[in-house]
Amino acid sequence: MPEVPIFERLCVIGFGLIGGSIARRAREAGLARALVAYDASDAVRTRVRELGIVDEVAETAQAAVAAADCVIVCVPVGAIAGVAAEIAPSLAPGAILSDVGSTKLGVIGALAAHIPPHVAFVPAHPMAGTEFSGPDSGFSALFEGRWVLLTPPAGTDEAAIGRIEAFWRGCGANVERMEAAHHDRMAAMVSHLPHLIAFTICNTAEGLEDESRREVLQFAASGFRDFTRIAASDPVMWRDIFLANREALLEMLARFTEDAQAMARAIRFGDAAYIERSVERGRAIRQSLIEQKQA
Ligand SMILES: NC(=O)C1=CN([C@@H]2O[C@H](COP(=O)(O)OP(=O)(O)OC[C@H]3O[C@@H](n4cnc5c(N)ncnc54)[C@H](O)[C@@H]3O)[C@@H](O)[C@H]2O)C=CC1
Ligand SMILES: O=C(O)C(=O)Cc1ccc(O)cc1
């Protein structure tokens, strides 16, 4: 575990599942001497005050970041650039700016124009979450044993990267660095495409005629139920992710569609060996996840 506190004053912008989990863990593990939060929603700010997790809930984003040595932006990816523009003039010299957005290339591009030269930007993506959102949904163990991917552009201050890495290790996470473009392709496969499939399969079921739809809900104890958990995720968050990671997601969707077509063909022509091999490959992936404690 790293030496604590890592930050004097940590500011969380956007107090939902991820911001709330960061704040809870930071408080519990003493990762920051003081915690300040800001959320654009009046109702969320009121709730964060009631929760008593942070030392201060600011009324503006500028006031929240003013004296912070680290600012972590935890808003939907489509809102990150706007937040950056809002806070940039108020960021303290030497402060570290980070985010938790599920896509990275677009976020880095959108932020680049706003980051002052005296601030280091260290983009991050925790590969951990749930289908819940809002200020009450966070919990301090969310990142325990999970991966956090850092995608700092070339030339980013190494000391700043080291402190963000130490912070996430203090949250119980494993940390790895990768190129933003590589991250986006990988995330498209392991996270964005599965969500797209889950939303789509629920829409397909919803589109059935009345009697069949009733039965889907009544007898959903099988495979369908696992998709509905993922499909319960926040619409704004996923709208933003799909639009921000358009190219990589469309590429993975095209590959998936080809493989689904190949399976359809095997079923149509009774190619039992192909079907069995495909199911076996799926099982092997599940087994590896269990072995890597990521299931
Ligand atoms: N939910 C998940 O499982 C994961 C989400 N992420 C990423 O983390 C970020 C946050 O996601 P969640 O915490 O799940 O969302 P959430 O919906 O629980 O919370 C987002 C919060 O941001 C606030 N907000 C929106 N626009 C704002 C603005 N302009 N200024 C200040 N506050 C604003 C909202 O009022 C809300 O309270 C997103 O970028 C998402 O892609 C990353 C990993 C996992
Ligand atoms: O709840 C689930 O199954 C998730 O996959 C959560 C999640 C959502 C978005 C991310 O960028 C990372 C993780």
| CATH homologous superfamily assignment of the largest domain | NAD(P)-binding Rossmann-like Domain
Helical fraction equals: 40-55%
Instruction: Provide the low-confidence segments as ranges.
Output: none
Q: Average pLDDT, to the nearest integer?
A: 95
Count of individual domains: 2
The counted number of beta strands is 8
Helical element count? 12
User: According to CATH, what is the topology of the largest domain?
Assistant: Rossmann fold
The protein's oligomeric status is: single chain
In CATH, the architecture of the largest domain is 3-Layer(aba) Sandwich
Distance between the termini: 24 Å
Please, could you describe this protein's structure?
The chain is an alpha/beta fold. It has helices at 17-29, 42-51, 61-65, 77-87, 105-112, 158-170, 180-206, 210-218, 223-231, 235-244, 246-268, 272-291, and strands at 7-13, 32-38, 56-57, 70-73, 96-99, 120-126, 147-150, 174-177. The chain has an eight-stranded mixed sheet with strand order 3-2-1-4-5-6-7-8, with helices on both faces. The protein is globular and about 65 Å long. The chain starts with 6 loop residues before the first strand and ends with a helix. 1,4-dihydronicotinamide adenine dinucleotide (NAI) is lined by residues 13-19, 39-41, 44, 74-77, 79, 82-83, 100-102, 126, 129-130, 133-134, 234, 237, 241. It is an enzyme of class 1 (oxidoreductase). Pathway: Amino-acid biosynthesis; L-tyrosine biosynthesis; (4-hydroxyphenyl)pyruvate from prephenate (NAD(+) route): step 1/1. Belongs to the prephenate/arogenate dehydrogenase family.
